[in-house]
Amino acid sequence: MTDSTECEAGAARGLAVERAIRAAARAGNRLISGATVSVDLERPEMRDHLAEALRRMGARLRPAGEAVDFAFVDRAIPDGRSVDGALHECAAADRSPAGGLPGIVVGLDGGVRPLRGASAASRIAWAAAGMPATAELAGRLGAASAHRGVRVGVSLVLEPKTAAFARLLADAGCSVAVFSAVSETDAEIAEELARDERIAVFAPRAADPARPAADVDAAHAAAILDWAPEYLIDDGAHLIRLAHSERSAALARLRGAAEETTSGVRPVREMAALDALRLPVIAVNDARTKTDFDNLIGTGQSCVFAIADVLDAASDARPYAGVAGTRWAVIGYGPVGRGVARFAAALGAEVVVVERDPVRALAALHDGHEAEASPTGLSRADVVVSATGVWHTLDARAVSSLQDGAVVAVAGGIDDEIALDELREEGWEDRGVARGVAEWRAPAQRGGRAVLVLADGGGVNYTAAEGNPIEVMDLSFATQLAALAQLTESEPRAGVHRLSEADERRVAAAALAARGGAVDPSPDSPRAGGAAQPWTVHRYRSARGERPEGDGAPTL
Fold this sequence. Notes:
Blueprint: H1 3-28, E1 36-40, H2 44-56, E2 60-61, E3 70-73, E4 104-107, H3 120-129, H4 132-143, E5 151-155, H5 160-171, E6 175-179, H6 187-194, E7 199-202, H7 213-226, E8 231-234, H8 238-243, E9 256-259, H9 262-273, E10 280-283, H10 288-313, E11 327-331, H11 335-346, E12 350-354, H12 358-366, E13 370-371, H13 374-379, E14 383-386, H14 396-400, E15 407-410, H15 420-425, E16 429-434, E17 437-441, E18 450-454, H16 460-463, H17 470-490, E19 495-497, H18 501-514
Parallel strand pairs: 1-2, 1-3, 3-4, 5-6, 5-8, 6-7, 8-9, 9-10, 10-19, 11-12, 11-14, 12-13, 14-15, 15-18
Antiparallel strand pairs: 16-17, 17-18
Helix pairs in contact: 1-2, 2-11, 3-5, 4-5, 4-17, 4-18, 10-11, 10-17, 17-18
């Protein structure tokens, strides 16, 4: 085999592996990291390549034939058997070790066991089955009489998992309303959720091209505050800020809020610093059960896979050869940026990190990536991902520095993280070339180069795909429920508060048990600071353990 032939074979193998992994996640909006997987392929080079990519994503490999979350085989047929007739234990009749969802059989021939129904009701039911920690926390909430009848407004991306979460809140005895922006709403899910008379839905249930999306969103946001919620579960602190500005009458009824995201916690902290915050807000985003899973793992996987899915589907407009061998520039190396870099690298990308914080840039080096300043890091990238949650991270000057044909996407993100408004002002023109892909071309006097912007510059994981996987949203929603309980039971003062460590541990314990894990019990009476012995026990105490002379404190 010549070098070129071997290179082509390696590229084809990498693309087949990538497509199989993406298909596995997409089949049920599932998480690869932490999942149990088996790889039963005939060709050892393909088996090793797939197994290594899965390991790098955090999957737990098991021998073929064991009950697993994902079974990768050469060929799959609809009844969950490979064509040689071998029954895979993760077929629809069985449950995977991860909880209530059945395992998925994925064939490298493109076949996938289609376990999830296509209807909105089926997709919501599927999501609910994969959220055991949320269900447990909702059960505890419902058992506490203090929460009965509490009015809770939910402002989150409206897709199957959010719908299942809203129903669990209603099951717990809360009065529930859900708001979602046009660009963040699955209209079929909104329509199905609205059938539940316990839940008010302030989100579009069908497209309305005659009405600007901004007008629809503004009307729905005002309406949910007029609904008079006592508590908000917010995303981006948009409703919190609206209640403190244009809809201040809502503050008379509001008693607290829980904020889901980094981009929402930032303005809330500013409000608190300026003495403008009139509510207690729990920074759910800062909880370990949120940031270490949803931000790092969930957003990392969902964004990388969504970018690849969109580009692969647009191969008629632009040939797609896979992530392997491409150069990705990740702007920002917080939890989201780290996750994007991790999953892109697992699929074979060369990753360079662009950061302002030298500590984070140093961490990127130690994670095996390059760390470069913007001019160098961006100019040679095939794919540029903004993972900062900061307005105009990619301004017109930065976009102009990209090479012709570069792909630009936002991970998670906020409005206008890519400065498309500046590009328009400078004469750039855009046209859609495929679903979720727009070509932005500079004016001729600027060289006429073009870049491909995904999902109109919105968060690619929730505008061009189905959002973060069920397993991490299970943790996030359970954390939100713990925050709601903390707000109603302790009634903290106005300001920004952390979720208690005890609540973090309760949420994690519920998820750990559902996934088949275990942990040693904590000491009944841990010492302040976590030391195992009294502070007076130290290396240099006297031979008889006597206290030093004086007031009993060690001397220097």
